[in-house]
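User: Can you help me understand a structure? I only have the sequence.
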Amino acid sequence: MEPIRIQRRSVLLFSLAAAISGCAPKQLVLNSSIGDIANAYIEKWAGFYPTRAYGEGRKASAGAFEVLSQERIAAWVRENEILSEKLAPFLTSPDVETQLDAAMLARQAKWEIELWTQADALSAEPELYSDFISQALTHLLVRDDLDAAEKAAAVSARLAGVKELCKIGLNQLKDANKERAQGALGVLRQTALFYRNGLPGIIAGWGLDGGGEKIQTAAREAAVSVDALADHIDANIIPSASSPVAYGAATYARRLEIYADGAVTPEELSALAAAEIDRVRAEMIEVSRRWRTQNGGGDSSTAGESDEAVLAAALAAMEDDRPASSAEMLEDFTTLTDKAEAFIREKGLATLPDPRTLYIAMSPAHLASVAFGGVYPTGPFSPQSDTLFLLPYVPDDAPARQKEGFYRSYNDHFNEMIISHEMFPGHYMQAKTGVLHAPAWRMLFGNDIYAEGWGSFSEILMLNAGWGGGDLLTRLAHLRKRIENATRAYVSVQVHTKDWNKGDVMNFATTRGLLAPQFAENLWDRVVNSPFQIITYFLGYHGFVELWESEQKRLGDGFSTRNFVDGVLRAGTAPVHRLAPLLK
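Assistant: Let's start by predicting it. Here is the structure, written out as tokens:
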């Protein structure tokens, strides 16, 4: 079962969706029937996923938390079945916008049905519990749309919901995959520690009467409940865990068909990724030789060195340029974000969504995403609310070897690519533009291949415009990300259809895939827990490259980078292979 956390979505009434999307009158008429259907569905969606609804800006959901009883899940599955039935006539509409919106909503319904019916999540997926619990307060603690009393009430209600979900876990959770259970255990322990030691200090700063003793008590009680669930997993689930890591070929193919909107089969994905790995590796060697020539005094300086030696030297030099602490990393990312925004404005690459609404901080230690950070964009409920950019994190008091490996991976050149991918013109700009211009449901139930594909395409878009000042090590960092993306896609297929184990993955990733130590270590966890999310970078990147080239061919001298970027981002997070008609 794909972890539920990838579905960071929200909800909106159709009337509000039209208002915030900047739709022209023809869109209101064109999509009115689809809008009516979406309106009824997304209100129910908000009730089932209130944490995500608030994350997307729905203030009314601040104090609600997911109730994952068998009855609620069965009712939610039925709602998605009803949605599928209603959408069927619109899937063959001659109007491209109507057909697109129907297809996106239909895909959402299929995925929800798949998630909640094809695996007994409550009894066999401990990471379901850890994901919801660890994300319960993420947005509440940093958003400024609630006053202190409202925030305290919402946090108290969420903590009560956490306690109820822990009870469900204690009663329902019977089995698991050992790897996923161990990951969930670590997240739950960190969350309990945060509730016990970190949250009280935050609450104390809210100026509540009596120091907020009631909510302080709720935090302590929630910590006890989370630790009890963690103890249950540790003592009763992990020792006898019997669920396999792999989905198996049939299940993987079925879920890939839904997830990728029918764009690729497992066999095609594996072949495309393998070819990309070899192609990018050759390009990395070529760039490394050019770098060696620049830094060695001439062409003859590399004549006696093997490809592997030259590449290793270039990668080592790239990793030598790196931050050394979390404070330095935060400062670097903040500065790079400012520079990337200014670069786009100077080069005229796109229309920037002003004003900037962005909160940058280190990822809290209890979050499931702590190893690689994440972007939590605002949604169409509140398009001018802050996007959260939570940076990857290693404690400053961690062992020296662990810190060195982390910062060598998150080196300065790699971080320049991260800013392009995550901020400008990547995820932040993509999501912010989308919520201001696209129909709301395209942002709420968007296509992850579009989102990560655009982030990956943003890197080469910026590099080719001069970002990084022509530094060959920065281009090498991009290529290393490209080969990592292809490696992710390839091993996803191998693990879930060919029974690759952790040793197979680590060996492939560090040799043929050339992954940095930190990312090679993370890959196994991601391929086990998020086998479809990790293919999105590779598939989406190539989808956007093909779209870019086809638009250049179609428009010739009339092609404009600004018009291309604006058109793609204002369309919303639609499947990449469905975007071309929207640009005409």
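Now, to help you interpret it: Residues 4-245 form one domain. The CA atoms of residues 314 and 383 lie 42 Å apart. Let me know which part you'd like to focus on.
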